[in-house]
C-alpha cells in the first residue's frame, strides 16, 4: 500500500501558532472516479427518458413536432442503450470493489457499519457536536449504508428493466434473457408489478440524489479534508 500514500507536509497555522502536517491518501482510483461520473450521467439521462416514456407529453403530430413521428421510439431506444451502459458500469464497478487492490479502503469501510461507536461518533460529527475523525476506510458507516442502499436500488432497476426489455424484444438478447430472468417476473407477481417496482426504485434514486449532493457539499464546507473534490482528484488530506 506504500504506492497509494505519500507524505505531503502542509503548513497550517493553528490557534496556538503550531504547524499541523497532513498526509495525502489516495482514496479512489482513476477507474472508480471515471465510472462514478459516467454512471451519474447515465442515471440522469435514464430518469429523463424514463419519465417521458411513462408520460409522453409531446405530441409528434402537432405542427411543432410534425417531423418527429417516431419520437417515442427514439426515446425508448435511447433509454434501452443507456440502460445497458449502466449495467456494464455497475458490473465493472462491483468487480473493482471486490477485487481491485486500490479499492481496499472501500472494502474495509464495511467494518465501520458493525461499530456502534463509529455510528455514534459520526452522528455527533453531523450534528456539529464533535470534530471529524478520519475513519478506517473510504466511508463512514452512514455513507456505507447509503451507498449500499443505492446498489440495492440499482440491482432492482436492472432486473426489472431487463424483464421489461425481453417482454418487448422477444428475439436475440431478449430471447436469451427471458429464461434467465423469468423467475424475477414470477416473484414480482407479473409484468405490471415489475413495472411498478421499476418506477419505485427510480423514485428511491431520485430521493437519494439530493441527499447525497447535500451531504457531499456539507462535508466539503464543514470539514475541508476532501469532500466533493475527492471524487475528482481521488486524494484526501488527513491530519497527522
Automatic annotation (TrEMBL):
It comes from the Bacteria. Belongs to the HupC/HyaC/HydC family. The keyword rRNA-binding does not apply. This is Quinone-reactive Ni/Fe hydrogenase HydC. The chain crosses the membrane at residues 34-58, 78-98, 144-166, 200-221. Pfam families: Ni_hydr_CYTB. It comes from Helicobacter gastrocanis. It is found in: Cell membrane. Residues 28-234 form the Cytochrome b561 bacterial/Ni-hydrogenase domain. It is a multi-pass membrane protein. Its main location: membrane. The lineage of its organism: Bacteria, Pseudomonadati, Campylobacterota, Epsilonproteobacteria, Campylobacterales. Gene3D superfamilies: Transmembrane di-heme cytochromes, Chain C.
Amino acid at each position: 500500500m506504500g504506492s497509494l500514500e505519500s507524505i505531503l507536509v502542509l503548513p497550517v497555522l493553528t490557534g496556538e501558532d503550531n504547524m499541523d502536517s497532513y498526509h495525502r491518501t489516495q482514496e479512489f482510483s482513476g477507474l472508480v472516479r471515471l465510472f462514478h461520473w459516467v454512471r451519474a450521467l447515465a442515471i440522469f439521462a435514464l430518469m429523463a427518458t424514463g419519465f417521458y416514456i411513462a408520460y409522453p407529453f409531446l405530441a409528434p403530430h402537432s405542427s411543432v413536432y410534425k417531423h418527429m413521428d417516431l419520437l417515442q421510439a427514439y426515446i425508448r431506444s435511447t433509454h434501452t442503450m443507456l440502460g445497458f451502459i449502466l449495467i456494464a458500469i455497475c458490473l465493472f464497478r462491483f468487480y473493482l470493489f471486490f477485487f481491485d487492490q486500490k479499492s481496499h479502503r472501500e472494502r474495509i469501510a464495511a467494518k465501520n457499519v458493525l461499530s456502534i461507536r463509529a455510528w455514534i461518533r459520526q452522528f455527533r460529527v453531523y450534528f456539529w457536536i464533535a470534530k471529524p475523525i478520519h475513519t478506517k476506510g473510504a466511508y463512514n458507516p452512514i455513507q456505507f449504508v447509503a451507498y449500499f442502499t443505492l446498489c440495492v436500488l440499482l440491482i432492482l432497476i436492472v432486473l426489472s428493466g431487463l424483464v421489461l426489455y425481453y417482454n418487448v424484444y422477444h428475439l436475440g438478447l431478449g430471447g436469451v434473457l427471458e429464461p434467465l430472468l423469468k423467475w424475477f417476473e414470477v416473484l414480482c407477481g407479473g409484468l405490471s408489478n415489475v413495472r411498478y417496482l421499476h418506477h419505485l426504485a427510480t423514485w428511491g434514486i431520485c430521493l437519494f440524489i439530493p441527499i447525497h449532493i447535500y451531504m457531499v457539499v456539507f462535508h466539503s464546507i464543514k470539514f475541508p479534508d476532501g469532500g466533493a473534490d475527492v471524487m475528482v482528484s481521488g486524494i484526501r488530506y488527513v491530519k497527522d
